[in-house]
Amino acid sequence: MANNVHYLIVKEKEKREVTYFEYNKLKGFNMASKNKNLKLKDAINVNKMIIINPSFIEKLINKKVNLKIKKLIDLICEIYNSNDDEDPASSLMQALNEVEKFKREMINKYLDYMSKEQLKLLNRKIKLLEQQVTMQAYYLNEKANVNEIQYEGKKSR
Predict the structure, then answer these.
(1) What are phi and psi of 44, to 5 degrees?
(2) CA neighbours within 13 Å on the CB side: how many for 56?
(3) Residues with Cβ within 8 Å of residue 32, at least 6 apart in sequence
(4) Euclidean distance between the first and final Cα of the chain, in Å?
(5) Residues 6+ apart with CB under 8 A from 73
(6) pLDDT of the residue at 124
């Protein structure tokens, strides 16, 4: 799976017609170019695209959401695997905040373009992430309490 995927739009040389769209009136998913400085020889440079095909919009949104979920899971795994002497609960609260931020971002950006099934699946994934982080925070809190009680028990005579 290559990360450097480029799309090329080829116009047919046989047809001698031009189609115009009033893009301000089209309802669709707006996409902007990530690399604004890319200039290709003998090509049309695209700054913005409006996707109007519903199945293509669904696929694009699924891809973007899944990529962001993967990054979020990697962040949470990194927090789990880190053996910092700092307060692990604060790291987990940061992860919980990231999950909430992701949830709000997905709702604000993609709510209009997502089907009910996609929303249900996304909500289920977000709830699983929240539950996992919360369970880990409770586990670390209990572990800290047990260590504190053991330390106090050894200290007293």
Answers:
(1) -90, 125
(2) 9
(3) 47, 48, 49
(4) 63
(5) 129
(6) 92
Residue type at position 121: L
**Strand 29-32 versus strand 48-51 pairing type:** antiparallel
Q: What is the mean pLDDT of each run of 10 residues along the chain (157 residues)?
A: 53 65 74 75 76 86 90 82 65 83 86 86 89 81 71 55
Phi and psi, residue 93, nearest 5°: -65, -35
Alpha carbon distance 135, 92 (integer Å): 10
**DSSP string of the chain?**
--S---------SS--------TTT--SEEEE-S-TT---TTS---SEEEE--HHHHHHHHHHHHHHHHHHHHHHHHHHHH---SS-HHHHHHHHHHHHHHHHHHHHHHHGGG--HHHHHHHHHHHHHHHHHHHHHHHHHHHHHHHHHHHHHHHH--
State pTM to two decimals: 0.66
- pLDDT for residue 12: 66
Number of CB atoms found within 10 A of residue 61's CB: 20
Residue appearing with tokens 């249900």: 120
The pLDDT, as a whole number, for residue 1 is: 44
Q: In residues, how long is the chain?
A: 157
